[in-house]
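Sample pair:
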Amino acid sequence: MYTGPNIIEDGLVFAVDAGSTRSYPGSGTTATNLAGSDTGTLTNGVSFGSGNGGVWQFDGVDDGIKFISEINLSSSSSVTYEGWVKAAGVSSHDRWFSGTSGAASAFHNPDLAISTNGQLRYIFANSGIGSWVEPSGLTIDTTKFSHLVYTFTNTGVVKIYINGTQEYTATHSNCTFPSVSNIMIGHRYDLNGEGILGDIPTVRVYSTALTAAQVLQNYNAQKSRFGL
């Protein structure tokens, strides 16, 4: 299951898990948001693997899971994006999570990506982070699953956690959090290139910034599923 006594549920607004039959039955093209009622569509041949409790597998070409419904974050002072990912970056910014705050491509909200050699990158274009940020030396092992957590506050503070440990912080211009639409897992929001080559089993969004203790709690709750 995507949730349980050890997973933080306060502020949870979006949650999908390939290992939960309530989120994905193991076949077909529909995935369900367990923190709401909206559904997404597995597009262009996203496949399912039974390993690690269930994962979605992306080809790095045109695969993605697309959600049309909005997540309303307009009253939030902070947000968290969380996912388990095992993927190799095949271009400069392959998204494991992407969304917009409007139809225009300029309004990334946000894009979270893995570049070549496992380098992490992010952009939050309508909130003072107007170009790709690539923190020096912030990489993951692309041969293993990594637990990635990004928190953003409306004062512009960004924190990135890898496998339960805070590895990065930065301050940008003040951030705002309008509704997130055109959510895409495993690819750019419009399926126009820059997709992940690898596996994504679960993604969550919170309408608050998880604390370091909460991030570690979520990591510990699922790490055995991913051999960590």
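The first helix runs from residue 212 to 222.
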